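User: Let's play a game. I give you a shape written as tokens, and you guess the letters that built it. Ready? Here's round one.
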């Protein structure tokens, strides 16, 4: 399958009613009504606050793939990609028909509807569902477990979003998309089903490298049986973690959305057309591990006070805080560090050239300062990327 063909599919089938970062049941419910006779739609449970959790089944093939998104409510890019994928399946074409004839997909578009509505990682009981795989203390965790046991998947896609802090290795290349074949034991053994997951990840990486070279990473595979992916891998089901990350100036995650869609199509097409034994897993180890080496903005070479009488040249690190305001996600720049940041990169960098940096009240900026602007040499400098 050629890259340009997949891109054309995306442009044709992109779900225009879903955009930016705030995606809730309210946004997807009208779309569910339009999915037609080819998708079985079920209410598979309820959240802590009694919001419905939806399950979607499509395809007639023997290879079963379970996909769930927004386990963390504020990680919505993969959900947008799922509806782009569903639109592709509904429009009969050679690729969608091949996948659906060979595979059956069960999709949970929003596992944590309360967290999605509040735009938080956790659920309404303040529990991280991705640390509840063993206790199953939350209704949302129990829903996923029931589907896993009844559907009996051959593959699991654990769909998430990652912060802007990650680089693909310790480089100035952002980890725009990251993957992981989770460990299934403390020794992080390269087991047969991990090899299968690694092989599929290798195919997606090969595809993405043609579009975003050196911007794909892998997560640390430290084992934690409380995590859902580790649990399912531990039960010998090849499981793949997807992490939708940051592309330059794409804080709405619309470019990343396309890259996630391309990952879906390329991996599902590979699964549909191959008997995957894990023999081609080694390319996985060529993907660099994520490193926390980015800030949203770095102001370099700023003159800062270290005491009443001493000043020095330092860097200023700014991270955008995501805040839900009137049903929209706003980005608020906040100073997190004032120190030498030689080992870090900024998605946006400003050189203060040895000058002082002031807030809007003409006071020297300090840690925890929140505002869209700073003042350098009497110039008002915007911190938000446009």
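Assistant: Ready! My guess for every position:
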């Amino acid at each position: 399958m050629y890259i340009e063909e997949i891109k054309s599919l995306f442009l044709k089938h992109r779900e225009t009613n879903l955009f930016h970062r705030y995606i809730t049941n309210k946004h997807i419910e009208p779309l569910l009504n339009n999915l037609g006779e080819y998708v079985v739609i079920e209410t598979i449970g309820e959240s802590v606050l009694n919001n419905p959790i939806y399950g979607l089944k499509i395809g007639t093939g023997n290879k079963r793939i379970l996909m769930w998104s927004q386990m963390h409510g504020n990680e919505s890019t993969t959900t947008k990609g799922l509806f782009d994928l569903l639109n592709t399946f509904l429009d009969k074409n050679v690729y969608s028909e091949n996948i659906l004839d060979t595979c059956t997909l069960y999709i949970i578009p929003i596992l944590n509807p309360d967290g999605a509505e509040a735009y938080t990682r956790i659920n309404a009981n303040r529990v991280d569902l991705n640390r509840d795989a063993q206790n199953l203390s939350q209704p949302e965790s129990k829903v996923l477990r029931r589907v896993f046991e009844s559907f009996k998947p051959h593959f699991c896609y654990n769909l998430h979003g990652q912060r802007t802090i990650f680089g693909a290795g310790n480089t100035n290349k952002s980890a725009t998309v990251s993957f992981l074949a989770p460990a299934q034991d403390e020794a992080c053994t390269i087991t047969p089903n991990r090899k299968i997951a690694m092989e599929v990840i290798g195919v997606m990486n090969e595809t993405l490298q043609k579009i975003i070279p050196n911007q794909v990473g892998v997560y640390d595979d430290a084992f934690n049986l409380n995590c859902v992916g580790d649990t399912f891998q531990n039960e010998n089901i090849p499981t793949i973690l997807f992490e939708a990350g940051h592309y330059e100036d794409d804080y709405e995650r619309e470019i990343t959305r396309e890259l996630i869609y391309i990952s879906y199509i390329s991996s599902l097409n590979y699964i549909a057309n191959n008997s995957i034994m894990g023999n081609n897993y080694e390319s996985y180890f060529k993907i660099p591990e994520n490193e926390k080496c980015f800030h949203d903005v770095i102001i370099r070479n700023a003159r800062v006070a270290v005491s009443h009488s001493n000043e020095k040249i330092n860097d200023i690190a700014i991270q955008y805080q995501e805040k839900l305001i009137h049903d929209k996600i706003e980005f608020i720049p906040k100073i997190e560090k004032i120190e030498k940041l030689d080992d870090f990169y900024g998605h946006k960098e400003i050189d203060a050239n040895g000058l002082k940096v002031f807030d809007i009240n003409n006071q020297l900026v300090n840690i925890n300062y929140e505002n869209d602007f700073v003042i350098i040499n009497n110039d008002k400098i915007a911190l938000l990327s446009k």
